[in-house]
Amino acid sequence: MTSFNWHQEAERQWNDRVEFWNANSKNMWDEGSRKTIIPFLQEHVEAGSKVADLGCGDGYGSYKLEQEGYNVTGLDISQDMIARAKARLEHERLQFVQGDLTHLPFEKESFDAIMAVNSLEWTEVPYKGLEEMKRVLKKGGQLCIGILGPTAKPRMNSYRRVYGEEVICNTMMPWELRQMAEETGWNLIDGHGVYKREVEGEDVSHFPVELKQALTFMWVFLFEKK
What we know:
alpha/beta, seven-stranded mixed β-sheet, 8 helices, about 35% helix
């Protein structure tokens, strides 16, 4: 019986999704679920900073960061995603490299800030990915990280686990990331929810954070490395 290799299976599946992702990423960043993330990061990270975009996909989010004045290195597990990003977008202030979140190919304290949007959910052991982020981030550096909320359709990628099948999407919730981060050397600085259309426009400001997160498509955190 062949043993399941999370890394290899994740790379294969994301290679298979290149065309779908490339057809949708611009809209996600410009008009959709990711439109608030770079403005949020800009509130906390100075222009000119060296930023890693971990789980960059086809590189469009990395490109938008670079356009705002950051020096950006995008990383993705998918060789085909990185090839697409390199061919379309790479230049002096915007570089791309293939790699695994749990074994980042960067030196210690290489970056001023990290952006990681819906990427830690695709690791076998999220703690290992978070520790790698801490390793390559400078002391006092910022981590802007988005985690899928309970209402996010991409969570369907973990559904088959209930039948005992192997999957590449873990089931970590936003509250679990916050607790893990605060237990392992991070300070929580800020955060906000991204909601589906049915919730947008509703006043949820009086809800406790746990209830706000329960309604989200994604929760975006800003942590600082101690």
